[in-house]
Design a protein that fits this description.
single chain; 2 helices; mainly alpha
Length: about 80
Amino acid sequence: MDSEPEKKSTFRKSSKSYVQYTGLAFQLAGILLISIFAGKKLDIYFGFSKPYITAILSMVALVGFMYKLYLDLMKPSE
């Protein structure tokens, strides 16, 4: 009977990390979709024949997300 609270505690910790990383995946997808959409609109607005702004915005968004991910992972867990 003593191991049952330990199992619940372990389950809560694992499900909390699962939800956290799933949220990060959705954030990455959302950030990239928004940057691609905005980049395409700006490429059309400025009349570029190739998607220069789309590529630049996507790379900036990806680097920014990786920095945010680094900060989140280095934060001490509660």
